[in-house]
Automatic annotation (TrEMBL):
The lineage of its organism: Eukaryota, Metazoa, Spiralia, Lophotrochozoa, Mollusca. Belongs to the TAF9 family. CENP-S/MHF1 subfamily. CDD domains: HFD_CENP-S. Keywords: DNA damage, DNA repair, DNA-binding. It comes from Lymnaea stagnalis. This is Centromere protein S. Signal peptide: none annotated. Residues 95-129 are annotated as: Disordered. InterPro entries: CENP-S/Mhf1, Histone-fold. GO terms for biological process: DNA repair; replication fork processing; resolution of meiotic recombination intermediates. GO terms for cellular component: FANCM-MHF complex. Residues 107-118 have a biased composition (Basic residues). One of its GO terms (molecular function) is DNA binding.
Length: 129
């Protein structure tokens, strides 16, 4: 793929993301309009959508830089925690989710380790006959 094709592909991806973001914001705004009995103009939706897209771009760049600073090629939960560190509620929620995920992963790996040990013992018993 040459550079022009990559630019076109990137532009298409950005436009697709912006459209999906606008659609999601529009769906949320419909709920808000019904709950609060207000009307939200398309201009407001477009402004919110564009502002959110720019913020997401900043977050993406920051996440990439945090990972690079830590000499990693992948973004992890710690990088996301750095982004949201000033939002206490979101920080606590993410920390709880990460702890739950870690606990789930540990339980899963213990189960598979136990199964592997059991299977190995069974194979050893079969070989001993």
């Amino acid at each position: 793929m040459n550079e022009d094709q990559m630019d076109i592909s990137n532009t298409e991806n950005v436009q697709s993301c912006k459209a999906a973001l606008y659609y999601s914001i529009k769906q949320i705004s419909k709920e808000v309009e019904e709950e609060m009995d207000v009307t939200i103009s398309p201009q407001v939706l477009a402004t919110v959508s564009e502002s959110l897209h720019r913020q997401i771009e900043c977050y993406a760049l920051d996440l990439e830089n945090f990972a690079k600073h830590a000499k990693r090629t992948n973004v992890n939960v710690d990088d996301v925690k750095l982004i949201i560190r000033r939002n206490d509620t979101l920080f606590r929620h993410l920390s709880e989710m990460a702890a739950d995920q870690t606990a789930t992963n540990k339980r899963g790996s213990k189960k598979s380790t136990s199964k592997n040990k059991r299977n190995t013992r069974e194979q050893d018993d079969d070989d001993g006959d």
